[in-house]
Amino acid sequence: MKRVTLAQVAEAAGVSVMTASYTYNRPARVSDDARARVLAAADRLGYAGPDPSARSLRRGSTRTLGVVLGEHLTYAFDDPQAVRFLAGIADVCAGAGYGMTILPITGADDDVPRVRAAAVDGFIVWTTADDDPVLAAVRSTKRPAVVHGGPAVAGLGLVSIDNRAAARAIGAVAFAGARRPAVVSFPLSRERISTVVRGPDPAPVLFPVTRERLEGYRDAADDLGLAWTDVTVAVCSRNDGAEAARLAAALFDATDPPDAVAAMGDLLAAGVLDAARAAGRAVPSQVAVTGWDDAAVAADLGLTTVAQSLRDQGAACARAALGATPARSAGPPAAPWSIVRRGSTR
User: Fold this and answer.
1) Which domain holds residue 93?
2) Residues in domain HTH lacI-type (predicted)?
3) For the chain, how many structural domains are there in total?
4) Fewer C-beta neighbours within 10 Å, C or N terminus of the chain?
5) 171-214, pLDDT tens digit by residue?
6) Coil, strand, or helix at residue 196?
């Protein structure tokens, strides 16, 4: 059916087009009688009101932030840290009268055109890989944009913690007194290959968060006189506790099982604890375990971990994307972190 126009509504109501427009956009400037006639005519003709997209074009703003999420859309609701991060963005958006659009990126051919065509005023990019083409797509829109966690991209803001320093600190706690330390890692690249390797070189790793944490764990091993080349690294394809449990079970079943495991997330650490329990490995006397994020599960399990606020970081990203705070395009990250010691380490 052909869309009813505002001009047709004005004609049916016996008023000017400007009066009809003011009825919807500036009702205080229209008399009660004229407003009633316009709304009655609109109801008779089936006019639903001004086109929101056209209104956005006129004012040059959609009042919406786009969140580029390099995961399946359900990740935004299933992963507790993603939920916290998005809640921080939502806090700022609600206060500023903005909406939020989640743009899941899966590696499909339409990722880049969807990002470029997104009707948003600015972008927040969830941590991704150095070679992710959506970074260039976001930058090409010339709209304000902030990357969470990395990579650092010229012209885009960055909100993160010092992952290498935090990994070195938690690694020192995890590996203390250990002879066979291990790491349960996030993926190394966008291919998300699950594997087990010994002492990988962090330099070629394309996810900055993974790379920097591996560098920090290596620093911790070096500080304790442990050979990084002997450290087993089990790489998970996702931040998934069940996958971590399967990989850890294989490590504990080996002839030289680890006596310390540093996991890059609390969900991964929870999976390690499940595997240790199933293998009859006492925590922490036979195997020390650490996590990352200080999620609710960490306190429940008595897990030593790195505490950071993803909610605060999400809010910082939103404020920067909205121009309320300067976007940090280079230099050291500024978000705070700390070590929380509980009963899972010696």
Assistant:
1) 64-159
2) 4-59
3) 3
4) N
5) 999 999 999 999 999 999 999 999 999 999 999 999 999 999 99
6) strand
